[in-house]
Design brief:
It holds the Pfam family adh_short. It is built from 7 helices and 9 strands. By secondary structure, the protein is of the alpha/beta class.
Length: 249
């Protein structure tokens, strides 16, 4: 469907996990194009311009949304970017670490959408970007719970988008490949996995406001992954995954 247009110039944008990495690059790009940007982060990195928000807490996320609306009157665009990515053997991973991964990467999206979408629906327009990952399509040894969280992020985004498609509010999932940020340090990626910069992901996020597509991969050619996966026998896919990811087993 055709969603009501949102002009980036003059829009009010809220970005979580915005103190560094993808979130920081996204906030800067939106601001450079004329948007009013409000950044939320659990660790404000000594910046007085950042709201302290714990995305695993519905109360904290709601307070962030309420503060932005109180200051600027509305939120046109929410970028759910906060994320964590612990690396390690699935059976050895502590339950608390797994819980944090799901809390930030899944419940963070749920809390954000439940906090902001009623305001958007009331106005008949708005856009939510959930920063997922190609790890929501491609399994990576050593990242089992992270994989689960990103598969959930992709499915959640599509489901909420469909449920509210007639409201004027759109939901897009952005799926980057391996991103060269502090979050990705220590990830066992092989030479076949394309790497991108935070600025590449930021451009995809900003462009999603105009196109409002359900899924945006970074780089774009990875959009064919679903078709390739469905049409390729599992032994061949397993070999392909080993070329992309350092398996070692």
């Amino acid at each position: 469907m055709a969603y009501p247009a949102i002009e980036v110039d003059g829009a009010v944008v809220a970005v979580t996990g915005g103190a560094r990495g993808i979130g920081k690059a996204t906030a800067h790009l939106f601001a450079s194009r004329g948007a009013t940007v409000c950044v939320g982060d659990l660790d404000p990195a000594d910046s007085s311009d950042v709201f302290v928000v714990d995305v695993t807490s519905r109360h904290s996320f709601g307070a962030f949304v309420d503060a932005v609306i109180a200051r600027h009157g509305r939120i046109d665009i929410l970028v759910n970017n906060a994320g964590v990515m612990p690396v390690g053997d699935f059976l050895s991973e502590d339950d608390a670490i797994s819980g944090t991964t799901l809390g930030v990467n899944v419940w963070g999206l749920i809390h954000g959408m439940r906090a902001v979408m009623p305001h958007m629906i009331e106005r008949g327009r708005g856009h939510v970007v959930n920063v997922a990952s190609m790890a929501g399509k491609l399994v990576v040894p050593g990242l089992a719970v992270y994989n689960a969280s990103k598969f959930a992020a992709v499915g959640l985004s599509v489901a909420v988008r469909e449920e509210y498609r007639s409201s004027g509010v759109s939901v897009s999932a952005v799926l980057p490949s391996a991103v060269r940020t502090r979050l990705a340090s220590g990830v066992p990626l092989g030479h076949g996995m394309p790497t991108v910069d935070a600025e590449d992901v930021a451009r995809a996020i900003v462009c999603s406001v105009r196109r409002r597509r359900a899924e945006i991969t970074v780089p774009r050619y990875l959009a064919a992954w679903d078709l390739v996966s469905a049409a390729t026998p599992e032994p061949v896919m397993r070999l392909g995954r080993k070329l992309i990811v350092t398996d070692g087993r």
